[in-house]
Amino acid sequence: MLNRVRSAVAHLVSSGGAPPSRPKSPDLPNATSAPPAAPPQAPRSPPARAGSGGAAPARTVEARASFSRPTFLQLSPGGLRRADDHAGRAVQSPPDTGRRLPWSTGYAEVINAGKSRHNEDQACCEVVYVEGRRSVSGAPREPSRGQGLCFYYWGLFDGHAGGGAAEMASRLLHRHIREQLKDLVEILQDPLPPPLCLLSTPGAPGSSDSSQLVGPQSCWSSQKEVTHESLVVGAIENAFQLMDEQMARERRGHQVEGGCCALVVVYLLGKVYVANAGDSRAIIVRNGEIIPMSREFTPETERQRLQLLGFLKPELLGGEFTHLEFPRRVQPKELGQRMLYRDHNMTGWAYKKIELEDLRFPLVCGEGKKARVMATIGVTRGLGDHNLRVCSSTLPIKPFLSCFPEVRVYDLTQYEHCPDDVLVLGTDGLWDVTSDCEVAATVDRVLSAYEPNDPSRYTALAQALVLGARGTPRDRGWRLPNNKLGSGDDISVFVIPLGGPGSYS
Amino acid sequence: MLNRVRSAVAHLVSSGGAPPSRPKSPDLPNATSAPPAAPPQAPRSPPARAGSGGAAPARTVEARASFSRPTFLQLSPGGLRRADDHAGRAVQSPPDTGRRLPWSTGYAEVINAGKSRHNEDQACCEVVYVEGRRSVSGAPREPSRGQGLCFYYWGLFDGHAGGGAAEMASRLLHRHIREQLKDLVEILQDPLPPPLCLLSTPGAPGSSDSSQLVGPQSCWSSQKEVTHESLVVGAIENAFQLMDEQMARERRGHQVEGGCCALVVVYLLGKVYVANAGDSRAIIVRNGEIIPMSREFTPETERQRLQLLGFLKPELLGGEFTHLEFPRRVQPKELGQRMLYRDHNMTGWAYKKIELEDLRFPLVCGEGKKARVMATIGVTRGLGDHNLRVCSSTLPIKPFLSCFPEVRVYDLTQYEHCPDDVLVLGTDGLWDVTSDCEVAATVDRVLSAYEPNDPSRYTALAQALVLGARGTPRDRGWRLPNNKLGSGDDISVFVIPLGGPGSYS
């Protein structure tokens, strides 16, 4: 993530475990990722968890002091060094000789052009088995009581102010999702609508035996019908929150420095769930048509949410910021003059007389890639950032960030897909310099050069997308064929075939 | 507005000024529009007005104790009685012999089937001249200093819990818009981008002489460009807020009882601005294609905003409500069991263990037309409702309601319109029983039966839409041709031709 977090003291995980000297990025002068202090007073919901789902998975998180790349890349020590080389910026993909990723998924990545020591993107691709929740005695259910569930999982994590959060999320987020789904194994496989209420046997919280379900028919007549799909969405949403809470708990011991955007795909029971928190993006290219599967969460797209929070909780602004937006910084000499402004409930602009408190820095300022919350961070959703503070201040920024994703659902069974229909996930390194239409054109160009049943075509496509966004070194920079600057950011891309070979394996 | 406000004591303005006996609607048993008390502690933005724009227009609001219909209907006393007859439900339109509405706009309305004594919808259609703000001496500007502006204006106001708010809004909202635009007269006619900052001469706040404008070029390089269009949007947004504040101030003296949805169209300098706060709706039918020009604001569409407010400001819930949503009311015997819930940041559902505070009534409950905030009101944006309280409680509901509209802009110059292209505005009485496609079909059927240059065709269309939603009395009710129930609500419809005769007069 280039340019999206101003942080002069963002610690990097060095190979020796001590903060290394690192090149300071000239565009990161203004803020500090402060040492652990009192947790920020984020207005968080009271924990409202499933009775027995509260246990965090994988409590035995080992400190990962060394730089790492996704295990499916199967990098040798030499390969790891090559992947870490800012000068060469070699594109990395899983080896053609090894075990393929599920669904013949294509993947490619490249390190940034020098903005951070290591590649702060991380990725994960897994097939995850979900066993139904065991009873309190620990004995497994009888086999007849229902089988477990499998889901396919892809995740891209774009770190900022350090690689720790992205690395941790890439190892653990799918386990949190699995944990949330455990209670739903039977319910999701039952064609009946989900029960609104589950009876809990004393001492066996979370038991969801069918015999203990209170079906909708036994409840009031006035009740909402809740779909299976919305249970999966809720499970993913809560998994994001639990992942974020785990980062908050473990940040001291395990160097969970910085934060990360998270873009995650779950395929379960015929449906694709795309969950996004941050500014990575996903699109489906289907028969040449583009279907957006996410939207970005930035200070611009979430301006009204941020301003409302600042207005309702002015203590979060610490007397340093104003929740009003101005088209530029107000200057002291302009007191009493009238300037354009926007309040939290406005989409248009109007003039207001400048008063003393309007001289504070606006909570939201800037445009496009330069838009910032509290002059510091350019994404408004994601995981981590628990230590992020405003420069020269102890004011925490985390209360304004949301760890909740937007989840979009795509029903794979509603359309007969051909091998050229793909879901493309990319970090902002891809999208900053590549339009949806350019991606669709590359999909068409690359896939048509391969046989439909050649499983390597999706890797070739991912590589072409990464190369097209990186460009080649020329004229003191990485340049695209049109001579515009390529992306100097970390770039990571998944290409998931929706109807290709192995799709439904 | 049928079924959208539960209020047993909603005062009606009687012809004699005293509360009349009225039929109590069986679906309004639960809440009370309390007598004026301390104003609710709504979290409102601090007034951030244009320096000289604070004076409310039309301070001389006379108490309107008698039932009224839009003046453009030109109703005689006998006509007024006929319009007020629940049994006949005669459709009302402006007389064919009188002066036509601007743009040959069509209008039709019908009273409800008995749910309230009078028709609580109101309408307004005006051509409004905006003179530039005068200097502090009160002397008009020199003519050379720029001419005034004209805007065309249409408004539908759907009242609830009494007709006062709708009546007041229909008389005054366009004046508030005019007042907000006064400062912008010169700026909107200047092809240059709006100045970000206006110099104020001491003693002449609000002066916007061109000579005193600080153009963008003299400001920092990092600044947002603000469009003329967004200034008009901001003016309309602030006009809604000022209208709402005026209702709050004058509710004691002038019987501004109840509240109203407001759907307003402003045509200014080639663009159509559609501002909506409530559950009325507007669509454009252009060459048979349907273009939605508004969305509805209800407890369902605004669930997350409402829940977030309840979560951040729990004092607004008064210990009586929970901000969590449940698919049905939780029962005391279910304590400790696990029930589906949604928090403010979730779109999916999950199970949680029921705790004591979950037994409170949910802030948002119900579905569709039965969805309610605090078990009381079914719309979440609009004007008025300053006295609305939860039944058997002093808890104010107004803090959860927003007076801000969503404004959509349609550029009339971007498309060559034919006489059959129309903008249709309707209160929920129309849309509850009529789909967008049915409206489009009626547009096609009725307009094709008239000559393109026959100005009465739009009135005929408005009447057909109202009749189609009302139905005919049959089988103990008002029935549509398909034998479904027609709307028993007040129904009001504007049909605005986008390219018809007189459109640009």
Folded structure, characterized:
The structure is a homodimer of 505-residue chains. Chain A is an alpha+beta fold and 505 residues long. The first copy, chain A, contains eight helices and 23 strands. In chain A, strands 3, 4, 7, 8, 17 and 19 form a six-stranded antiparallel beta sheet that branches. Chain A has a five-stranded antiparallel beta sheet with strand order 2-23-20-9-10. In chain A, strands 1-18 form a two-stranded antiparallel ribbon. In chain A, strand 9 (281-286) and strand 10 form a beta hairpin. The longest helix of chain A has 27 residues, at 228-254. The radius of gyration of chain A is 24 Å and the shape is globular. Mean pLDDT of chain A is 83; it is low at 6-43, 45-56, 58-65, 135-144 and 202-221. Chains A, B: Residues 47-59 have a biased composition (Low complexity). Chains A, B: InterPro entries: PP2C, PPM-type-like_dom_sf, PPM-type_phosphatase-like_dom. Chains A, B: This is Protein phosphatase 1J isoform X1. Chains A, B: Residues 36-46 have a biased composition (Pro residues).
